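Reply to dn_fold:

You asked what the input looked like. This is it:
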Amino acid sequence: MKVKVLSVPVWDQEQALAFYTEKLGFIKKVDLPLGEDRWLTVVSKEEQDGVQVLLEPAPKHFEPAKIYQQALFDAGIPYTQFDVESVQQEYDRLVGLGVAFSVPPTEMGTVNIAVFDDTCGNNIQLVEMR
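and this is what came back:
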């Protein structure tokens, strides 16, 4: 069994694509029309055959998903996390691009974390494993 796709609910697929590619540095992998929405995935530049992040317009079509996503966001709970080599370097780079962080780089035992707003309804956590 393998993980090939990780779904992240987004309010607006076009806005999410811009944020995830222009700010976070992912690249678009798949973009297929599905009625008024798309099967839209991005991947890490470093692992282009790795796990795809599906920018899914789920909250628009399923009210419980919208409520769940908003509750996580309001509580400051990250929807998912991305591993990085250096949380401090990514934090500095992303702040320079205007990304808003709710948690600055913080050491927590054997990891360093930071949490940012993806502008599409999610808190995303950066994690540096040491």
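The mean pLDDT is 96.
Hope that clears it up.
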